[in-house]
Every structure is written in C-alpha cells, then in structure tokens.
Write a structure and sequence with these properties.
CATH topology of the largest domain in chain A: Alpha-Beta Plaits
Protein name (chain A): Formate dehydrogenase iron-sulfur subunit
Cofactor (chain A): [4Fe-4S] cluster
Order of helices and strands of chain A: EEHEEHEEHEEHHEHEEHHHH
Number of strands of chain B: 2
CATH superfamily of chain B: Transmembrane di-heme cytochromes, Chain C
Order of helices and strands of chain B: EHHHHHHHEHHH
CATH class of the largest domain in chain A: Alpha Beta
Number of helices of chain A: 10
Largest sheet of chain A: 4 strands, mixed
Helix content of chain A: 25-40%
Shape of chain B: elongated
Strand content of chain A: 15-25%
Distance between the termini of chain B: 26 Å
Strand order of the largest sheet of chain B: 1-2
Number of helices of chain B: 10
Largest interface: A-B, 61 and 68 residues
Oligomer: heterodimer
Number of domains of chain A: 2
Number of strands of chain A: 11
Largest sheet of chain B: 2 strands, antiparallel
Strand content of chain B: under 5%
Function (chain A): The beta chain is an electron transfer unit containing 4 cysteine clusters involved in the formation of iron-sulfur centers.
Helix content of chain B: 55-70%
CATH architecture of the largest domain in chain A: 2-Layer Sandwich
Strand order of the largest sheet of chain A: 9-2-11-10
Shape of chain A: elongated
InterPro entries (chain A): 4Fe4S_Fe-S-bd, 4Fe4S_Fe_S_CS, FDH_Electron_Transfer_Unit, Formate_DH_bsu_Proteobacteria, Formate_DH_C_sf, Formate_DH_Fe-S_su, Formate_DH_TM
Subcellular location (chain A): Cell membrane
Amino acid sequence: MRGDQINLQNIVARSASNAPSPQIRDGGVEEVTKLIDVSRCIGCKACQVACSEWNDLRDEVGECVGVYDNPLDLTPNTWEVMRFNEYEDEQGNLEWLIRKDNCMHCEEPGCLEACPAPGAIVKYANGIVDFNSEHCIGCGYCVAGCPFDIPRISEKDEKAYKCTLCSDRVFHGLEPACVKSCPTGSIMFGTREDMHELAAARTDFLKGRGYEKAGIYDPAGVGGTHVIYVLQHADKPEIYGNLPEDPRISPMVDAWKGVTKPLMSAAVGLAALTGFFHYAIKGPKEEPEDDPDERTATAAVRTDEESASPDSQEGDRP
Amino acid sequence: MSHSNTKKGILRYTWWARTNHWVVAISFVLLVLSGLALFHPFFWSFTGLFGGPIPTRFIHPWIGVVMSLFFLLLAVQFFKESFIKRHDIQWLKQIRDVLSNRDEKLPPVGKNNAGQKLVYWIMVACVPVLLVTGIIIWRPYFADAMPLWLLRFAVMVHAYTAFLAIITLIIHIYSGIWVKGSIRAMVQGRVSKAWAKHHHNLWYEEVMKERNPPSADKDDDSSRQQQSP
C-alpha cells in the first residue's frame, strides 16, 4: 500500500459538485477494504476502545440496560459499536453472533448523493468515504441518504460524524485502529482483492465446519462496500443486528436527488425566462386610460369628495 | 389616466392586507433563495446572501415559521374572495386570450381572477405541507426523533412541494409585472376605476353599487348590462 492513497488529487467523488475533481493521476491507487470476520469475533470491544482512543472521542458513560451492547447505538462520539445477537438455529443451538457495526464505505455512497454542501463528503480513489467536517453544515441529509443508518449529528457542533476508516492512519500506510487492536484477527485490512481472497478462504473454512450458508457480505445494491463481512449465515444478514439484506439508496432519496434535481432546477430557470420572453413578445397589460363611464365616474368622484372620509375609515391606513 | 394612489381610485388592498402580503412575500423569497441553495449546487452561492452555508441552514426553518404564521393570517383574509366561480372556469378556458392580452374577449370576473385564485389555493395547499415536512427534517430540534423512512419521505415531499410553490411564485411575480397597476395596488392599496372595470368588472360594479345605490342612479343598471353581456 502506498502512502499517497489519500490525497487531495485522489478524490474520485465529491458531494454537491458539478465540476469534476482532479483527474491527472490515473490508476496506481489500489482500493482498500476492511474485512470483518464475524465468526472469529469474541466481542471484546478492543476495536471500540481503539477507535475512541485513536480518534480522540470520549462518549458519555452510559447505563447498563441488561445487554452487552454499549452504547446501544452509534453516536457522534462512538463511530462503531458491537451488536450482540442471540440466535437460535434450526437445530435449536444457541449462537452468539457479534457484529461490529460501522460505516460500510459504499462504492456508491448514499450520504454523498444526499449531501448539499460542496466537498463535505468525499470518496478517495482508494474507496474510503470521508466527511470533511470543515464543509459540513449540519443539515442531516446524509442521515436520510445512508442505507445503513450510520451518520450521527453532534449536538456539540452540529456536524455529522462517522467512521473514517482511519483515513489519517491509512494516509501514513497504517491499518485502521480497530484492525490494529483486534486480538483474534477478526478484523483485517488490505487491498480489496486480498481481502476478498481472504474472505473466500474463510468462507470455505466455515462451510467445512458445517456452516453451509456461510458467505461474504458485499452488497451489490450500493455497488459493493469497502467494509465487508464474513457471515456464518450469509442468507440471513438480518439476524446480525438488522444488517439489511439488500441495501440500496432509498428510492425516495433518488426521487429527491436523482434526475429530478437538475430537472426541477432547470424548470425554475425556464419559468423565469418564459416570463421574460412572454413580456417581450406579448407585452404588458397596460393600465387602461379611459374612464369607464363618465357619469358613474363623475358621480363616484363626487361621492368621494362629499364623503371626505379619512383614509383610516376605508382601510388605506391604520 | 387616473392614478391608484389617490382618493379617486378604489381601495383594493387595506393597509393590513398589504403589510401581511409583503411580510409573506419577503419571507417567501428568502425561503426560496436559501432553500434553492441547499437543493442544487448551482444555487450554492445564494448561501452568501445569508452569511454563509451554516447560517443559511440555520435561518431557513425560522423564516419558514414566520412565513407560515403570517400566511395563515393572509389565507384567512383572502379566503372568501377566493372561491372559484363559474365565470372563473370560463376565464381559465380562455387562458390563451388572457396570455395574448385579448382582454375584451374575457368574461368579467370578481375581485380576483381564476389565476389569482389558483395561486391562493396552491399556496394554501403547499405551505402547510412545507411547514410539516420542514419541521420533520429540522435539525437540531426535531429530526433526530424521527424514523429514517419519515425523514426520507419528508425531505422528498419538501423538495417537490417547494418546486410547485416556487413555480407558482414565479408566475405570481410575473403576473404582477405583466399586469400594470397591480404592483402599485399591492404596495399603495388603490387602483383606478378604469383598471378595476377592465380587469375585475364584477368587483368594480359591486363597489360602484355600494357607492351609488341603483335607486339613486337609473343609468347604472343599463350600463351594467352593456358591460357584462
């Protein structure tokens, strides 16, 4: 892996931007992927701690509600959580399925599509989707855009936060903090190709151990993700803390941010232009100059003058 | 030519109707500018009008609340005069004559023509939708409490409704520029009698009737028959 993978000249997608990003660098940057092998996770949460430590995040101390999940959900200060699931298989055997939940770094990121602030969300050539919080305006559109319910808006500074895949570490040729801290090798990091090879090997191993439905979670609906899972029961992703079976950017987000967005914008401009040209071609409806009816008008004027009512009585002024 | 801002003209909009209209109008334009800025990057530079992107995001919903309140008052004021009548349908059927300035062919209409009434009813439909969907996606106050599907639905409906309202607004503003005398009516309150008779004959006759009861002026009836064949 090369250190220059994350670079201002290696941005391949940028939120709310019409002009393309720098293009001169061509190839050379391999896509990275984080592989989370759920079958090897022991739920120690070392990754959660490492994440807080590296990213300098300190969430509030929560309360125990009787489950291991802590905190219960992602927060602006907790960019990954372990989701603990007790699953009973067909034979009645209990399985403890623990999934590390964090940003999936989609190939086609819904957050980036929804974001209205130019450059607040970027995707690097290596596949990492990053929030440039300097440009974030705190509108929360990314929350609506994300198919995985990942971004959280901080109450402290009203900006959106999520896992960066330790883009700062990757920049320096290091693996993400969670990968570094994992004691069982459940979290691996490398090129997309290598991780898929490794995931395939793990899947085969699990199949040999009786997990016939073991497989790789790399959902095609979002163009694949740069965080992939090895699941023992790949046919039932929902048992892993509601991992969506076929995630895709919501049709409602597409209807809002898809082709209709430029079309509606153009229609607004066209409407104004139509008005101008209608005026130029047909002309205005000029003030009629003639008095409608001499008798009535004179009578009315007389009435007005006779009544001599102050403006306030008719309602001209308060 | 009789000018509208004189005692000789007819009072079309009271001081309160005018004030109310312009509070709504100004806040609506500010909402359009700040909303478009957050809708398409082409309009992003409009954020500069509001002191930057974050102030734009912050101020937009507050302006929306102000506008909604004043719009409610305006909608109540204009409610009765906005019912669509039979002659309004005829007027709409002759929209080509309207657009081509063939005013002499048009049926006489009341205080508001069908176009103005449509603007009223479209806005009456749009503003509550914009208010409710806007509150749902309002950060940091409400959005966090909403389920994701509702956020997505609200943000989509907000955009489409705003589009309809903006197109209606553009038509409304253009009509004001196109029909000379109407902007002055909304700014200063009065229109000339000729203007009233030309554009809103039924309303003109109503006003004249109040000023000169028919019993006092025999010719009034015959003249009305001529005006509205």
